[in-house]
Amino acid sequence: MKLSVGLRVSSSLSLTPQLQQAIRLLQLSSLELEQEIQNQLDSNPLLEAIDSSPEGQASDSLDNNVDYQSNEQQTSDYDSLSDFQDSAVSDGASSIALDEQMGLTRLGEDLPVDTQWDDVFSHQSTALASPEFDEREDTRTVSDSIWSELRWQLNLTPFSPVDRIMAECIIDGIDERGYLEASLEELLEATQNQLDALDLDIEEVELSELEVVLKRIQNFDPPGVGARDLSECLCLQLRALPEHTPSRRDALNMMAHHELLLINDIPKLMRQTNLDQDALRSALALVKSLDPYPGLKFQNNEREHQVPDVIVRKKNDHWEVQLNTDILPKLRVNSYYASMIKRADQSEENQYLRTHMQEARNFIKSVDERHKTLLKVSTCIVQHQRAFLEHGPEAMKPLILRDIALETELHESTVSRVTTQKFLLTPRGLFELKYFFSSHVATSTGGECSSTAIRAMIKKMVQEENVKKPLSDNALTEKLHEAGIDVARRTVAKYRESLNIASSSERKRLL
Description:
It is a single chain. The protein is extended, with a radius of gyration of 33 Å. The strands form 3 sheets. It has a 5-stranded mixed sheet. Strands 1-5 form a two-stranded antiparallel ribbon. The N and C termini lie far apart (93 Å). The chain has 25 helices and 9 strands. The protein has 511 residues and is α+β, with helices and mostly antiparallel strands.
């Protein structure tokens, strides 16, 4: 074997720290991006946020009139920042100059699908854009828990010391729904342990005494609390209603035979209760108006409201795609610290400023690239799903990540990252970008139909069906075949279950 020395030229892709940062920012949600920006602002003195308030804008205009020591260096820094944006603008961009100033993308014949983010959304206009939504005062309140509410009522009710200990054990055995989860035997044992721990000279507590205390707890608010099952909970709420409430007596009579109601045996239920069809229907309507989980109203059910990343609206028969300016970061390099950097200075302080200057520039560029990609992908998705915006979910077109990746000249993994936890606000509601991707099912005419559209059609068929003769899975399959959609019965059953729609036997109503 002969050894030799030679040169070879090859190219390879390496993940630089800047590229890794860009990829990580791309998959962050708006909330996570806000947290990441705050971390960068705390750690990098050369990165600053622009205050979009009138006071902040006024102070920025005053700062622009101040002459710093190195004005030429400051100007070069701003020129370097502007290099991060694409300088090439198509000749036809002048026809949408007004839309560019507003940060809009119009989906018409005059604008291509792969519109660049810089063509329609400049960094400076983003920073000084006015908020899309008005700020409102947060009037949300957090309610007390079911246990604190019951203990508050317990302190206002006269109890003997032993009964109070039993009541405390009963309240501890109630779950967040308001139901008594522990058995009476377990509560009796817990009460006896409490009495022994307090060294009270009291004889053993009887089970009947515990039942009496439980009845008193069941008279607390909310009605139905302390019940051991759904039937008892509904009966407690019916007894708490005024006696002159219509159908109250009939509802109590019907709940005494609730096992027939569960299996939907209406003829036998009418015979057992001696109620006619109209009286049974009124009693059933009264029972449906009750709360099956009385304890949940005391939970903090505050939901995380998603903030849209992209907004689409229709103006003059055109769908316009716009990034939500409320959540766009308004960042820039601190001009004062940038003016302190000296070119020929190799001191530790100067190197510190140089390093953080480069980090700030890279971070701003990565954030801008994130918004460019997000607008580019969202514009392409909206163009594909115009029928959904016009006519609803039944008109959803089949779409996969590869379709968007080919049109936007991006990798499928990039499209997947940019559509994860990103939300699009449309006239039909707020949707995650992933919602617009779905598999396809062949049609009898040789075309394709989206699985989302099929689900919407099944949901509409069930809503319009006769409740006395609900549509079975076979009937739904036949209706879809009549509409030209070739789908199997098991697929229809899978779609029905994904929509949380019960089977035809469970949906059947005789009243």
